Amino acid sequence: MEHKQEFLSSRFAALIVTGLLILGAAALFAALPAHGQQSGSIEFTARVSPTDGRAEPVRGFTFYLLRKSFQDIRSEAEAQEPAPKMDEFIDSLSVSPELKAWMKKDKRVDLSGTEFPKAVTPEDVLGVPEFKQGYLDQNKGDRSVGLPKPKFREADKQKNPKKYQQQVDEYNSALKKFIAANPDTLSSLELALEKMNPGPRWNKMVAERTARVHRRWLELAEFQYKAGQCDTDLEGRGRFDGLAAGNYWISTIEMQAASGDARVRWDVPVRVIEGRVATVELTNLNGIEPRSP
Fold this sequence. Notes:
Largest sheet: 4 strands, mixed
Mean pLDDT: 87
Structural class: alpha+beta
Number of strands: 10
Shape: elongated
Number of domains: 3
Number of helices: 11
Oligomer: single chain
Order of helices and strands: HEEEHHHHHHHHHHEEEEEEE
Helix content: 40-55%
Radius of gyration: 36 Å
Low-confidence stretches: 1-5, 20-35
C-alpha cells in the first residue's frame, strides 16, 4: 500500500512538471511572430536632386511606415466624409424653378466671379426671372448702354391681350439681339444678384467638408495604418525593424524634403519578406509632386 502511494505521488508530480512545460512552450510560441514567421526589416536612403545640382541626403527627416498607401488612405477618408450634393443644395434654395434648372444644368451655384457672365447666354437672361430682372436693373438707368425700350403697356394686358403679347415678344426678341451684340453688359449682373447669391454658402460647405476629410486622413494614417516611424541620419539613411511579412509604404505624409529648388515627398510601396531586409532608394524619380492638402 505504501509503495502504491509513492507511485501515485511520483505520477502526480510528473504530470505537474509536464503541464508546466506545456504552458512554457505555449507562452514561448505566443511570443514568436504569427505562424512561426521571422520578422523582416526595411533599410532606405533618401536623396533629393535640385535642378542642375548633385543629389543631397535628406538628413534628420521623419519618415513613416504605413500599412496602406497614403493616397489610398485619403480615398478612405473621403468615403467616410461624404461630399455635399449640389442638386440637393439647389433644391433647398428659395429661388425660381428656372434658376434652379439653370444651376443644375451648368453645375454652378456661385453667381459671381469672372467666369459667371461667360456662362450666361441671352436665352438665359430671358428665361430666368432673376437674371432678367437683375440685368434690367443694372443697365436700364445707363443711357450709354442703349437698351431697347418696351412698347407694351400693362393696361393692354387685359384690354388687348393679343396686342400686348405681340409687343412683349417683339421686346424680348430685341433684348435678346441686344445682349448677343453687347455681351459686356452682362458683367454687372453679379452685382444685382449679390444678396441672393448662394455661392458663399455652398463654398463654405465644401471647405468644411475638405477640412474634415483632411483631419480624418491624418488620423487614419497616424492611428490606424502607421507601422512605424524613424528619422534619417546624416547620410539620409533610415531603417524599420521587427516587421511582419507584407506590403508597406514608406511615406513622408504631407512633409516635403527640399534641396535647392526641388521639393519632394514620398509614398513608395515596399514588400517585406520574413527574415530578410528590403532595401529602398528614395529619389526624385519615385517621389510625388508637391500638392496642397
